Amino acid sequence: MRELKPDPAQAIRPGGPVLTGADGQAAPWCRAASQRARDLAWCSLSPPLLSRLPDEYGTAAGLAQWPAGTRAAWQRWLETADPATLPETIAELSGHPDPTGSRSLRLGRHAERLLHFALQRAEGIELLAANVPIRRANGHGIQTLGELDVIWRDPARGQIVHWEMAAKFYLMVDPQSEQSGAPDRRAFVGPNLVDRLGDKLEHIVRRQLPLGRTDEARAVLGHAIDRSEVYLLGWLFYRDGRLPAGLDTLGIAPDHLHGWWSTLDDWAARSAHLADPGAVRWCRLPRANWLSGARVAEADTETAESLQATLAQRFADPHQAHSWRREAPVMLCELEPAGPAYPGIWQERSRGFVVPQGWEDRARERARVP
User: Fold this and answer.
1) Average model confidence (pLDDT) for the chain?
2) Is residue 201 part of a domain?
3) Where would I find the beta strands (DSSP E) of the chain?
4) For 241, how many CA atoms within 13 A lie in the half-sphere containing its CB?
5) Residue 330: left if φ>0, alpha if ψ -120 to 50, beta else—which one?
6) Considering its fold, how many domains does the chain have in total?
7) Which domain holds residue 301?
8) Residue 157 and residue 187: Cα distance in Å, rounded?
9) Which pTM does this prediction carry?
């Protein structure tokens, strides 16, 4: 594998204008003052991770397609909506969790919940069902086969559509596979090393989407599925923000959201060489806030120097019960002033993970597992 050496003089950047729209303006999942609006915009308007599915999946599944004009109309509605009428954030929900457990605080469930809200209000879409459990009777009782994320009707085409949604965050650890010299979907691993992009896509296409075409699903829904589609959103992170060649061969969308990942020493070295360090602040981004662009009060920001000391202490935590603190990457946001209209507010300019010592070796081993 070709080793990528960090350039201390290179400012940390996500590698492209991923936080802006086609018109050059800040994307709605970044510019809205309310996190409710930003999260909702991210789940319904941000670019997908993929531009196409791999050829080996054939034509049985496709990528999610909104009806023509629907998303533009939905964006106009969202930009004028009162944030008080929008779904609560995970932080807000955690203050008064539902005792029935129906308000899951898992990030993936939260993203699904926001998409359901959008589809209920979007013109040209009729949401029929969401989170539908599919069960089968067998000799041991009732077996739950899985769950259908979204079922909706496309009135323009007269079709019933099944979407499986996932909101994922992967770090690429091997720019090239050892076998072919081409990028490999297995090289995109989750921060906790449990999940991989290739495995997730395989699970959605081979297991979750076919579930919608079973007899059990048809009995529950009362109709057949005409289209089965993957709704995959997220962020991909590359070593020191450098995107390798050949991503298009994996079907990675050219406008996908992406950031950087670095070791603590490499991140600190580049941070120290920013052209104007005083114009940049930093924050640690909790998992509940990973979806949309960050907007942070100055009191909740840090300098690179103070953050470096905090992370060094975290990664060296000797307590036996704190192994997760030593081994887990931490997502950071590089911040810039939000502008004169928002005094004291800093907004995201780039994001990435700082990884502890040894994480990259463990990630490479995980990526090599068939």
Assistant:
1) 88
2) no
3) 62-63, 126-138, 141-154, 159-172, 188-189, 227-239, 258-263, 281-284, 295-297, 330-337, 345-355
4) 21
5) beta
6) 1
7) 260-370
8) 38
9) 0.90
For the chain, what is the radius of gyration of the CA atoms? Answer: 21
pLDDT tens, 288-337? Answer: 999 999 999 999 999 999 999 999 999 998 887 767 778 999 999 999 99
CA distance 36 to 329: 26
Size of the chain, expressed as the number of residues it contains: 370
Asked, for residue 277, whether it belongs to a domain, the answer is yes
Burial class (CB in 10 A: 0-12, 13-18, 19+), 163: buried
Asked if residues 37 and 136 have their Cβ atoms less than 8 Å apart, the reply is no
Burial 196-214 (b: 16+ CB within 10 A, else e): bbbbbbeebbeebbbbbee
- Helix ranges (H only) for the chain are 28-31, 35-45, 70-79, 90-94, 107-121, 197-203, 209-211, 215-221, 264-272, 304-315, 323-327, 359-368
Contact partners, residue 216, CB within 8 Å, separation at least 6: 134, 135, 136, 145
